[in-house]
Amino acid sequence: MLALTRKKGESLVINNNIEITVLEIRGDQVKIGISAPKEVPIYRKEVYLQIQEENEQVLNADGLEALKNLL
After folding, report:
1. Contact 13, 7 (CB under 8 A)
2. Predicted model pTM
3. pLDDT tens, N- to C-terminus, the chain (71 residues)
């Protein structure tokens, strides 16, 4: 993991097309802004993990296994 220090108003760039800017620092919370192409999905980690878990549950469903057996 790369750890960087940024102040309010400072940014970092990822892969030449994603910019992350520190917008506000208030107590123990940091507000960030993300500028990225529309085709780049951006999720909070807890939401991303929930999506991954739901996708895994769908893949493990009995109905899908039956469909796979037909193929």
Report:
1. no
2. 0.73
3. 999 999 999 999 999 999 999 999 999 999 999 999 999 999 999 999 999 988 887 777 665 666 666 66
